[in-house]
Design brief:
Helices cover 41% and strands 19% of the residues. With 259 residues, the chain is α/β, with parallel strands linked by helices. The chain has a single domain, classed as Vaccinia Virus protein VP39 (Rossmann fold, 3-Layer(aba) Sandwich). Strands 3-2-1-4-7-9-8 form a 7-stranded mixed beta sheet, with helices on both faces. Strands 5-6 form a two-stranded antiparallel sheet. Strand 8 and strand 9 form a beta hairpin. Helix 3 crosses helix 4. The longest helix has 23 residues.
Length: 259
């Protein structure tokens, strides 16, 4: 039996999705959000794709920073439970969205088939594209084909001049550094046991992610390799910074305008 058929994928599971909702409460992740949104600089009338959106923290940031003036933000994720998070998000946003914020349940490992060419001004993604997975039956191993495919697919759905701003974890991420930077949130939460349970759940999933990355399923790549893959996909102006307690790169790249 093929490895791909027996290796479990936790990402669509509601429990896994909910475990990562709480990461936005901690200081390293808030810094990552700030660094990412600073490079997004959303403006009025723009259409944004939030790829691998989870519970929608980047969608919220795009809405808040634009004063609710963006034309649309589409959150896309493989976990259907995130529709519930987006329903709450829409109820909380100020000013209230009138159809501009929506969620699409879709596994982007196979591409962005439902989305038309050039349909977004810009795209953002938070710690997600690393988990685009592809298994080659012919070669009997995991490959980076899905990783390259999602870079090409984002390029396809962007309009010329559009930015792709995204974060990815560094090779062999040290989750304990993120945990150490989260201690202040433990004290401030007022519910330390609840916070510790959530943190323990995230650490367990983090261990699974690192094991699968070592097996070649997921891809924690050096910054130079990510930049090279972006360039090969056609992007220009590639730059990056380090964030998330030193455990993530934030990249910004642009789809060139036609001459």
């Amino acid at each position: 039996m093929a490895v791909a058929a027996v290796t479990r994928n936790y990402w669509p599971d509601g429990k896994c999705a909910k475990a990562f909702w709480s990461q936005q409460e901690v200081r390293p992740y808030r810094r990552l959000l700030r660094d990412t949104l600073d490079w997004c600089s959303p403006a009025a009338a723009e259409r944004w794709l939030d790829l691998g959106c989870g519970g929608g923290p980047l969608t919220r940031g795009l809405w808040d920073r634009s004063g609710g003036a963006v034309a649309e933000v589409v959150g896309l994720d493989c976990a259907a439970v995130n529709e519930r998070a987006y329903a709450r998000l829409r109820a909380e946003l100020t000013p209230p969205p009138r159809g501009q914020v929506r969620f699409v349940c879709h596994d982007f490992s196979g591409g962005l088939g439902p989305l038309p060419d050039g349909s977004f001004d810009h795209a953002v993604s938070g710690l997600s594209i690393t988990y685009a997975e592809s298994y080659s039956e012919a070669e009997g191993r995991w490959t980076t084909a899905a990783y390259d495919r999602i870079l090409a697919e984002v390029f396809r759905v962007l309009r010329p001049g559009g930015r792709f701003v995204f974060s990815v974890n560094v090779p062999e991420p040290a989750w304990w550094r993120v945990a150490a930077g989260s201690l202040g949130a433990l004290v401030a939460s007022g519910r330390p046991l609840r916070f510790l349970k959530r943190s323990a759940r995230m650490m367990r999933y983090g261990g699974w992610l690192k094991r699968e990355a070592r097996a070649g399923r997921f891809h924690y790549l050096p910054a130079a390799e990510v930049a090279a893959r972006l360039t090969a996909a056609g992007y220009a102006g590639v730059e990056y910074r380090v964030s998330y307690a030193g455990q993530a790169f934030v990249f910004r790249a642009v789809k060139p305008r036609a001459n």
